[in-house]
């Protein structure tokens, strides 16, 4: 009797261990990204911090995420395990270094290095999860990651807001607090000793090793099917812009960029934005924003598992754009209505985030998956860095209305991009979806072709 593919097996102990390890990595990543905004808000007045430096330091880790290009390529060549195991040590050490410098240039270098380490979690971690959990559950589990990501981001805000007692060094202590969560996550990985991905081993022709791993951790009745035993014969980056993958690479990066531009720009410097909106009780409003972020992710998990991926992407882009553009046009709206519209934006953009990990992973085969996801993340960082760097400058020059106009326009562009090019990657919905997209070769294929060829 032919053995079943291991991804058709139920969740085993190792699958749960991988999921927990990746979840902890997402909490560390979001905490490290989110802590910088509240820390910089606590910089003592004796330090001169211009809006340019504020933007650069806020965007530093996001700049470092461009390293996902290199990380993804190396992980496709040398495997997932090495990077996944070493990453938390790097994050812990870099976080501690923030305690020992007040030099802005040195701090910027550290923040960029932290972003490069976070790139491992975004590329390698999500690929490992997809390649270890059962095929029927992986999309759901990928969306779950964003709930934990939001929790980490909210935790950073709480720690940064309520940490006191360190005098002029309070802001550095807040920044370095990410070392604690990094060390805890690293301890879990040391205890579990994450094995390599069977899917990656098979894609490199190391079939016996892959099957042995499956037999050890999943069961003797399972194996790795030949569909994944394909090695890339030319450079992965070149493959990403070949006729087969070009559109997937671009849509995966551009939708992500259009989401991250407003999300990071607004959330990292939320205290500044609240001040410009003349909110009288910014602490309560900021707590509400982060609570709605978590609620939005939970709503997104439910909806994304019930709706076609394509419709979910288009709908969340257009809805979040509408809320911001109304805020930008209605200058004299009552404060209560302004907060309601801003809350609806927070809920919608947070719901949209659940696609950031799952969708790019569905667009690429196992042999180039981390390279593909790495490229999408690198493209997306253009939006994240631009939003984070520009917001304090725009805020000082033109106020919150300009921010709403720019962010709303970017979201509208994202909706148009998804309407034109985003393929349906859900097998459940693709077979009923008669919409087509053009391959660069000129042939027309149904979106189900994309689904069947990319989920492995």
Coarse shape: globular
What is the CATH architecture descriptor? Up-down Bundle
Can you list the strand order of the major beta sheet? 1-2
User: Topology as H/E string?
Assistant: EHHHHHHHHHHEHHHHHHHHHHEEH
> Given the structure, what is the number of helices?
21
- Tell me the name of the CATH homologous superfamily: MFS general substrate transporter like domains
CATH names the topology as: Growth Hormone, Chain: A
Largest sheet: 2 strands, parallel
Average per-residue pLDDT, rounded, comes to: 82
Distance between the termini: 22 Å
Rg value: 22 Å
Which runs of at least 5 residues are low in confidence (pLDDT < 50)?
227-234, 434-455
CATH class: Mainly Alpha
Strand content: under 5%
Number of domains: 1
Q: Helicity, in percent?
A: over 70%
Helix-strand makeup class: mainly alpha
The count of strands amounts to 4
């Amino acid at each position: 009797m032919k053995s079943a593919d291991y991804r058709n097996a139920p969740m085993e102990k190792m699958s749960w261990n991988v999921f927990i390890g990746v979840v902890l990595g997402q909490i560390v990543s979001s905490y490290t990204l989110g802590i910088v905004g509240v820390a910089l808000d606590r910089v003592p007045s004796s330090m001169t911090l211009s809006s340019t430096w504020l933007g650069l330091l806020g965007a530093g880790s996001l700049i470092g995420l461009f390293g996902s290009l290199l990380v993804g390529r190396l992980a496709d060549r040398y495997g997932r395990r090495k990077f996944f195991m070493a990453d938390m040590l790097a994050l812990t050490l870099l976080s501690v270094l923030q305690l020992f410098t007040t030099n802005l240039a040195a701090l910027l270098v550290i923040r960029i290095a932290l972003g490069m380490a976070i790139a491992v979690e975004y590329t390698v971690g999500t690929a490992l999860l997809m390649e270890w959990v059962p095929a029927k559950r992986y999309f759901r589990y990928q969306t779950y990651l964003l709930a934990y990501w939001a929790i980490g981001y909210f935790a950073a805000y709480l720690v940064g807001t309520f940490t006191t007692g360190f005098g002029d060094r309070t802001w550095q202590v807040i920044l370095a607090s990410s070392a604690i969560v990094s060390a805890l996550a690293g301890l879990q990985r040391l205890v579990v000793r994450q094995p390599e991905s069977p899917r990656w081993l098979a894609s490199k022709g190391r079939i016996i090793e892959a099957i042995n791993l499956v037999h050890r951790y999943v069961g003797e009745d399972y194996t790795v099917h030949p569909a994944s035993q394909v090695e890339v014969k030319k450079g992965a980056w070149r493959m990403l812009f070949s006729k087969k993958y070009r559109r997937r690479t671009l849509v995966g990066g551009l939708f992500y960029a259009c989401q991250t531009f407003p999300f990071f720009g607004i959330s990292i410097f939320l205290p500044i934005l609240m001040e410009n909106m003349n909110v009288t009780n910014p602490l309560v409003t900021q707590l509400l924003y982060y609570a709605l972020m978590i609620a939005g992710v939970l709503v997104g998990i439910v909806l994304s598992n019930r709706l076609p991926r394509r419709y979910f992407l288009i709908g969340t882009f257009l809805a979040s754009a509408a809320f911001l553009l109304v805020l930008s046009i209605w200058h004299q709206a009552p404060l209560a209505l302004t907060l309601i519209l801003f809350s609806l934006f927070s809920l919608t953009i947070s719901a949209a985030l659940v696609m950031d990990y799952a969708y790019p992973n569905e667009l690429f085969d196992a042999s180039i998956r981390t390279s593909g996801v790495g490229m999408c993340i690198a493209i997306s960082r253009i939006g994240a860095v631009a939003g984070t760097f520009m917001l304090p400058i725009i805020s000082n020059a033109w106020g919150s209305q300009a921010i709403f106009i720019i962010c709303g326009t970017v979201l509208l562009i994202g909706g148009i991009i998804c309407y034109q090019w985003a393929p349906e990657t859900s097998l459940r919905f693709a077979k009923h979806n008669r919409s087509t997209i053009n391959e660069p070769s000129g042939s027309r294929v149904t979106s189900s072709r994309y689904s069947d060829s990319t989920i492995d």
